Write the structure tokens for this entry.
Amino acid sequence: MFHTTIDSIVESELNFRPTAQEVLSDAILSLIPNEESRCLLRSISPYGSKTALLALAKDLADGKIDFSICIHSIQKQEQKQQTALIPAELLSSTLIQELAPYFSKLFFRSQATDGLDYALHYASDLLICPYCRKKLSLSTKGSGDYSFLCSNNHNFPIKDGVA
């Protein structure tokens, strides 16, 4: 019998390497004019939901968020430390693709502000209804009760992170 958890899918030791990058939506393309930032967004697109990716694009466009690599140089004998920040836009596309799991984990983990684990947001792009094969989406009933719901109103309540 096949057994896995959403966390094991989303946090699989960062070994997941998608075979193809997503094509960015027109909404994202209109927000992000430079190719360097588009390359970053394309690289992390397989790791988060389309909604999360659009939110990231808006934050990038508004200057609310920026990605960079921090490098520490430590001289142990002299107890001296130096730090350099390298903006992600200056990195090669190959390096960005290699670092994408780390960038996406930082952003998508902190982006879920509704109290629900970010893995459930991510799962909504992966799940289909077992009854009718329609896409499941994350829904709330206003009282803090979350569930996955399909267009045919098949409902799968979430209790303690489990649907």
Observations:
- The beta strands are 68-75, 80-87, 137-140, 146-149, 155-157.
